[in-house]
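Deliverable D2.4 — example input (structure tokens):
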């Protein structure tokens, strides 16, 4: 074997050297693509492309600091606007607080007991990984009583100054307990008591609809709710994201005029900004180019209309009939007089601007071209 090995080793070495050279070459001609459109952003994935939101975070901090008030927070905004991303990013934004992110989608539960088990497990995992704190466990079975005890124990912990428990997409709670409303009512009662009596624990729920649209259940139980609205990113933030997504991104690869055009086409909608960004870089790399041009945006938009189909289509499908008519009219560029409930509906979802025009022009293209076809 000794006779043949040196020869094989040489072949391997040459092969590895070629691979390395090819990779180095590729890295030198290709632009990095740090944009993330498919998943919510997290501290370990996409932190540098998480932008803006300073005012919102300041507000949350302020509400948490006001210890004498036992208010809870509701983060409300349209789909794909960045609610989950913001909640997942809170541990690094609020260093004084133990932030627990709980997502009903990732934690499919169908009973009260499963709900508490999942909540406590997530809370313990996150406190350990972000704050190096050991949280108590549930005593015995997961029941309302043991959950109440658990919240008490959290409140008594000396190591932590404050806990913020975020429940993402809280509208889903109501679907958890089909048939029987009793459990849901008790759960809401427990959450309410937790807000009122546990000094250190605050609750943040996120959702698409404001409480008044959800009916009495939420109104009755969430007292003293502070509503926080989340919307699109402003021009400066959007352009900066597109032109300088990470510190090592080559300056000038995405010129400011290209960033501005993308901002105009998307209205600063966070998901669309990231989608355009990632498609633009893919295109440049495919064509082995190092600088974007204004003309690239229309090709990128064609692709975005396909890849963003699910999102764009849902905006239209979710709209009640009279709103759809208005959207169709606005999409053709017609002057539509929008007033009353329709206007409020559209404004809540960041779909029209102050002048009554479509906030996301590419949505107009989609409605015109894709839905009419
Ligand atoms: N602060 C932000 N800065 C830049 N992009 C963002 C930001 N927040 C969200 N995004 C982009 O928008 C997409 C949708 O965000 P997500 O948090 O899933 O929204 P929501 O929970 O409101 O549906 C993310 O995948 C990301 O690409
Ligand atoms: Mg979400």
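Example output (designed residues):
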């Amino acid at each position: 074997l000794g006779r043949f090995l040196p020869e094989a080793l040489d072949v391997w070495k040459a092969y590895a050297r070629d691979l390395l050279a090819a990779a180095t070459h590729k890295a030198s001609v290709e632009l990095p693509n740090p944009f993330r459109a498919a998943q919510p952003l997290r501290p370990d994935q996409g932190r540098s492309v998480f932008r803006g939101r300073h005012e919102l975070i300041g507000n949350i901090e302020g509400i948490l600091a006001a210890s004498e008030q036992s208010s809870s927070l509701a983060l409300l905004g349209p789909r794909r606007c960045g609610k989950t991303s913001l909640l997942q990013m809170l541990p690094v934004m609020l260093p004084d607080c133990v932030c627990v992110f709980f997502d009903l989608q990732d934690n499919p539960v169908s009973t009260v007991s499963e709900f508490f088990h999942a909540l406590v497990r997530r809370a313990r995992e996150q406190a350990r990984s972000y704050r190096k704190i050991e949280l108590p466990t549930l005593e015995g079975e997961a029941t309302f009583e043991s959950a109440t005890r658990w919240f008490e124990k959290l409140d008594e912990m000396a190591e932590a100054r404050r806990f913020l428990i975020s429940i993402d997409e809280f509208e889903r709670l109501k679907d958890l307990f089909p048939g029987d409303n009793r459990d849901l009512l008790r759960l809401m009662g427990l959450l309410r008591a937790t807000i009122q009596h546990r000094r250190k624990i605050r609750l943040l729920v996120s959702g698409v609809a404001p409480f008044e649209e959800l009916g009495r259940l939420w109104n009755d139980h969430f007292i003293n709710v502070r509503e926080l609205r989340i919307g699109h990113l402003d021009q400066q933030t959007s352009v900066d994201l597109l032109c300088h997504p990470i510190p090592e991104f080559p300056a000038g690869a995405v010129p400011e005029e290209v960033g501005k055009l993308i901002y105009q086409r998307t209205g600063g909608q966070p998901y669309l900004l990231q989608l355009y960004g990632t498609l633009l870089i893919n295109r440049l790399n495919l064509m082995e180019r190092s600088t974007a041009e204004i003309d690239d945006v229309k090709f990128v938009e064609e692709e975005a209309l396909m890849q963003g189909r699910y999102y764009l289509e849902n905006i239209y499908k979710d709209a009640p009939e009279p709103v759809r008519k208005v959207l169709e009219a606005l999409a053709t560029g017609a002057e539509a007089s929008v007033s009353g409930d329709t206007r409020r509906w559209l404004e809540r979802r960041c779909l029209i601007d102050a002048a009554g025009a479509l906030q996301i022009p590419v949505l107009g293209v989609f409605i015109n071209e894709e839905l009419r076809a």
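DSSP finds 17 helices and five strands in the chain.
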